[in-house]
From TrEMBL:
Protein name per the record: Lipoprotein
Species annotation: Psychrosphaera haliotis
Length: 494
């Protein structure tokens, strides 16, 4: 037993264990009542119908899995849950999503008012509540927090992850606590996404976060039931892909999409978007699904991108070669396939990239759309990026046949087997570009862009006459301003 502290358990057994008292032989012992660390009680409901037997957890590391070290609890009758988040993890309630794993065998209590009977879950899925990014206060330790989780809250976070993809480590609570710029971007994305979903579903923001069963909100209930169809289909494929790519990052989204309906002339379609990052690159695929009753069956592919990365040439300069093969479906049903080759080196913390874009071939079907050509680019670009005093910069310059620089580095096309190319040749050419923020661009290009990203302000300029300034406010919102000269600014909306 510690000479200076005795546990509170010792006090509780004082009448039996006399050695716990101050009169024991160890007269130098001092009794100190050690109280438990304070914690935040988080309670709420898991709602589809109310879910019984789901595992609700605080996803501190952002991997979407209920790890043993993360606060968690099984949901009970009425979808109720209550778990305590210890003080050491309490700050993560602001930065981490709360997720409910709904397994096969869980109970969905349904809704008597809506004619949906209590039933057993036969297809697993997850529902999610996005981070609030609101700091935890002393009052939260006293009063606790209430967090309801439903398909409606899930679709908000799903849209964020789809439109604002991040590396897995950037989803960790510890990362977000240290990167305010990422938090402000996410807060802005959440606000923008919520506005779009409110308009799309014709529900208020309050309805999106409410207990629609207790409120007897029929519209919200049926929208939630529709969303769950997509969540189940996405979860099934995500589980399969995680098994295939155990070390990869897998994202799967299944939903309706009004913009795609309009572009592809589809009536009330369902779509699936898949992205998998693995150790040699990534692939993404967007498809139209057959129907809401056949969400595991593909009707046709809309886009398919497949990029392969490999170490190449001078490894002292982190040489890398990437080739991306793209396939796109046009509204008329034809498919276009094209390729992009990118060569990259890093010298003295400056990144130099040469990209070759190749023309597309057109085919009647996705299966036929194969284009292996890397020998005749229609566009080339030189991109240089770097950091100075926590400010990120890049300059990128595009050239086509009309520009003389299009033929520079002529041998640097289809380079995979050109092992004798000298990295310094490419770097020396790119160094001559006017890539610094204040450099005047007088070279002939088809297009050029520059960016300066400093703190809460991001400046972009295109061709010297099209300026955009994005300023992130203290409340997380972003103000967008436009200019023709970089000096006189007006609202981009005006």
């Amino acid at each position: 037993m510690n000479k200076t502290k005795l546990s509170i358990a010792c006090l509780l057994t004082l009448s039996v264990l006399t050695g716990c008292s101050k009169s024991s032989k160890s007269s130098d012992e001092q009794i100190v009542i050690v109280t438990e660390d304070k914690s935040v009680a988080v309670s709420g409901k898991a709602i589809d119908g109310y879910i019984v037997g789901g595992t609700v957890f605080l996803d501190i590391n952002g991997n979407g899995i209920a790890d043993a070290s993360e606060p968690q609890k099984i949901t009970e009758e009425g979808g109720d849950y209550l778990f305590d988040v210890p003080e050491k993890d309490a700050a993560c309630l602001a930065y981490s999503a709360i997720i409910v794993d709904v397994p096969v065998g869980a109970i969905d209590e349904g809704s008597e008012e809506e004619g949906v009977a209590r039933h057993e879950v036969t297809d697993p899925y997850q529902i999610v509540l996005q981070p609030t990014f609101e700091p935890i206060t002393e009052a939260d330790f006293t009063n606790g927090l209430v967090r309801n989780i439903s398909p409606l809250t899930t679709v908000i976070w799903q849209a964020i992850e789809q439109n604002y993809p991040r590396e897995i480590e950037e989803k960790h609570c510890d990362y977000l606590k240290e990167h305010n710029e990422a938090v402000t971007e996410l807060k802005t994305e959440i606000e923008d996404t919520l506005r779009g979903l409110v308009s799309y579903y014709n529900l208020s923001a309050e309805q999106m976060y409410a207990d629609f069963i207790a409120d007897k909100d029929s519209d919200a209930f049926h929208i939630a039931q529709d969303i769950v169809k997509g969540l189940k289909a996405a979860y099934k494929l995500k589980t399969e892909l995680r098994a295939e790519y155990p070390e990869g990052e897998v994202r799967v989204f299944v939903s309706r999409d009004q913009e795609k309906d309009e572009y592809f002339n589809v009536e009330d379609g369902w779509y699936r978007d898949v992205v998998v990052f693995h150790d040699t690159g990534y692939f993404s695929e967007d498809v139209k699904l057959v129907s809401d009753e056949q969400l595991n069956e593909v009707d046709y592919v809309l886009t398919h991108l497949d990029r392969t990365d490999k170490a190449w040439n001078d490894q002292a300069l982190n040489g890398e070669l990437s080739v991306r093969k793209d396939v796109y479906r046009d509204p008329n049903g034809e498919y276009r396939c094209s390729n992009i080759e990118r060569i990259e080196f890093k010298e003295n913390d400056i990144r130099y990239e040469l990209s070759n874009s190749f023309g597309s071939l057109t085919f009647d079907t996705f299966e036929e759309c194969v284009n292996d050509s890397l020998d005749d680019p229609y566009e080339r670009s030189f991109r240089i990026s770097y950091d100075i005093d926590s400010t990120y910069y890049f300059g990128v310059f595009f050239f086509r046949e009309a520009q003389s620089r299009f033929t520079e580095l002529a041998e640097w096309v289809d380079v995979e087997n050109k092992t004798d190319l000298d990295s310094s040749e490419m770097i020396d050419v790119l160094k001559l570009m006017p890539y610094r923020w204040d450099d005047e661009v007088s070279i002939d290009t088809s297009l050029w862009r520059k960016r300066k990203d400093q703190g809460n302000v991001q400046l972009d300029v295109e061709n010297g006459t099209d300026w955009t300034r994005a300023t992130t406010q203290s409340d997380g919102t972003t103000v967008y301003e436009c200019s023709a000269d970089g000096e006189n600014w007006t609202s981009c909306e005006g």
